[in-house]
Write a structure and sequence with these properties.
Distance between the termini: 42 Å
CATH superfamily of the largest domain: 2-enoyl-CoA Hydratase, Chain A, domain 1
Helix content: 40-55%
Strand content: 15-25%
Order of helices and strands: EEHEEHHEEHEEHHEHEHHHH
Structural class: alpha/beta
CATH architecture of the largest domain: Alpha-Beta Complex
Number of strands: 10
Low-confidence stretches: none
Radius of gyration: 20 Å
CATH class of the largest domain: Alpha Beta
Length: 278
């Protein structure tokens, strides 16, 4: 029986998804790719999960695509029908109604998840591992974490939509710097350019990330998080007027929701909130 490449734990409203190929620095292969997607679907559909954490086992977050997989691709005759088969690996796993196609590709589906996704970057996040960090909603790094695109050093390009996402996170000049040079940057530089929101001690990473996730679980509305996430990712393709119109429409809807009533009630009554997510 093949050992699972993903560990899944859910408690206290938090699902922790751990890439589990530590002997390969969690390098991505087809099994890990598929099991990671299924774990995210499980967390997305669970009523008991409000926040999702993604991390890696051992000393790496994800060192990119498994070199054995890359070598197989290198040996393919790209002038043959194999090219079409290879393209087929980049299609969405399961289309989701009402979600833009761009947020449903093989490596860009985190924005389609209805819940906050926090990347707990515990070690090297390079190549494809770097791609996964970009599609997390929030990134918190250990002080030992390292980041790099790697693609130019392999004769490749800006893969899987990071030419669109990376400049929106770190700016155009920083994006070109990381892409052109493929240089490895440390957690402190990643924080300086806005790639990560927080840097914490490696020994305290999961404690601090769970504390952050717990803040979201215990003090804020799941419905608000869900709508805000949809707004922010939609706004990346909207002009200001469209974003304002969307916000006005969603604000009117929120007035009729239980979480709005609870948000006022707990504030007035000076007690912890009890949001239902509705």
């Amino acid at each position: 029986m093949t050992e699972s490449t993903v560990l899944y734990d859910a408690s206290d409203g938090i699902a922790t998804i751990t890439m589990n190929r530590p002997e390969r620095l969690n390098a991505m292969n087809s099994q890990l790719e598929a099991e990671l997607f299924e774990a995210f679907q499980q967390a997305d559909l669970s009523d008991d999960v409000r926040v999702i954490i993604l991390t890696g086992a051992g000393r790496g977050f994800c060192a990119g695509a498994d070199l054995e997989l890359l070598d197989q691709v290198r040996q393919i005759d790209l002038k043959s029908a194999d090219m079409e088969e290879l393209k087929g690996t980049f299609v969405p796993f399961h289309p989701k109604d009402g979600v833009p196609d761009g947020y449903q590709k093989t490596y860009s589906y985190f924005p389609a998840i209805d819940k906050p996704v926090i990347g707990a970057i515990n070690g090297a996040a390079v190549g494809l591992g770097f791609v996964f960090t970009l599609f997390c909603d929030v990134r918190i790094a250990a002080d030992t974490a390292r980041f790099g695109t790697a693609f130019a050093q392999r004769g490749l390009i800006a893969e899987h939509g990071i030419s669109w996402m990376l400049p929106r996170i770190v700016g155009i000049s920083n994006a070109f710097d990381l892409l052109y040079t493929s240089r490895i940057i440390d957690a402190q530089e990643a924080h300086r350019i806005g790639l990560v929101s927080h840097v914490v001690s490696a020994d305290e990473l999961m404690t601090e990330v769970r504390k952050y996730a717990g803040l979201l679980v215990n003090t804020t509305s799941p419905r608000s998080q869900r709508v805000m996430k949809r707004q922010v990712y939609a706004a990346l393709n909207q002009n200001l007027g469209e974003a304002i119109d969307t916000a006005n429409d969603e604000m009117l809807k929120s007035f009729m929701c239980a979480d709005f009533a609870e948000g006022l009630a707990h504030f007035v009554e000076k007690r912890p909130p009890n949001f239902a997510g509705k």
